[in-house]
Amino acid sequence: MSRLSSRHLLGLEGVPREDIQLILDTAETFREVLERTIKKVPTLRGITVLNLFYEPSTRTRISFELAEKRLSADTISFSTSTSSVKKGESLRDTVQNIEAMKIDMVVVRHSSSGAPYFLTKCVDANIINAGDGSHEHPTQALLDMYTIRKKYGTLEGLRVVLVGDVKHSRVIRSNIWGLKTMGASVALCGPATLLPYEVEKFGCDVYNNIDEALDGADVVNVMRIQLERQQAGLFPSQREYTNLFGINKERLKRLNKNYTIMHPGPMNRGLEITSEVADGEHSVILDQVTNGQAVRMAVLYLLRGRDMEEGEVA
Ligand code: CP
């Protein structure tokens, strides 16, 4: 079995091309499993996975749970609202107590950037980052890359535009690292107030004008405008954002002929993207969700398989 270079998936920054390639290739096998009548393989039988979600999630949480069940793992889903977190128990104590019940892997979403890294210092389980603060959301970017590669056969040389809140989006960060490693040309576009300090250090083309950003692009990945940040006054109004950065049918004329529209969800229809575009023939938004299961199966399998080879489990 080919091996990943790490026993955790905390982000895509610094992850070697070979690891990303291995995950995407392995996901191809699991994508085929999802087309079978019986969508289940015994790969992780006897392994227990904890899904630790400190923030709301629909896609990532269900996708991981399904991926684990389809690999025959035992799964525990943890909700902060019904746990002793409500009584003030810390992240460290929570996870150490659950690990004492013999947990092998932890999938964690947390509002604090770095929470998954912190967990690697507290417990022996494999840690998978399911989104931490404004840091990274690596499995989202992997499923995005898988979906693009499935359509074009490669990521090399494609021009991908990431539109939205570049400053706070963990999905954008993971996409930047992953896409650049795989040889895509990455452009970032958003209001100046939603671009981070020293944005040029990402090594991407940066635009404040959406029409210029879209010129000759192959893929547009539209990010959710985080309405909760409206109070921070980072853009004047939702209507102005839609006028200046919203993806509508008219703007698609600037893209390459065989273009692709993506969105990680949840969508604000009519704000960052029109329904006509989101539901149009070039949209792969629901394919992203389906492919996400296969990618997460691959990540779970490769991380645990790595430890199994090292004899950490029988
Ligand atoms: N794409 C994504 O992370 O969606 P959820 O917040 O629903 O998991």
Structure description:
The protein has helices spanning 17-33, 59-70, 91-99, 115-120, 138-152, 170-181, 210-214, 238-245, 275-278, 285-309, and strands at residues 48-53, 74-79, 105-110, 126-132, 159-163, 185-189, 205-207, 219-222, 260-262. By secondary structure, the chain is of the alpha/beta class. Helix 8 (238-245) links the parallel strand 8 and strand 9. Helix 1 packs across helix 5 (138-152) and helix 5 packs across helix 6. Bound molecules: phosphoric acid mono(formamide)ester (CP). Phosphoric acid mono(formamide)ester (CP) is lined by residues 57-61, 131, 137, 140, 264-266.
Topology:
Layout: H1 17-33, E1 48-53, H2 59-70, E2 74-79, H3 91-99, E3 105-110, H4 115-120, E4 126-132, H5 138-152, E5 159-163, H6 170-181, E6 185-189, E7 205-207, H7 210-214, E8 219-222, H8 238-245, E9 260-262, H9 275-278, H10 285-309
Parallel strand pairs: 1-2, 1-3, 3-4, 5-6, 5-8, 6-7, 8-9
Helix pairs in contact: 1-5, 1-10, 2-10, 5-6, 5-10
The chain binds phosphoric acid mono(formamide)ester.
Keywords:
single chain, 314 residues, alpha/beta, Rossmann fold, 5-stranded parallel β-sheet, 4-stranded parallel β-sheet, 10 helices, binds phosphoric acid mono(formamide)ester
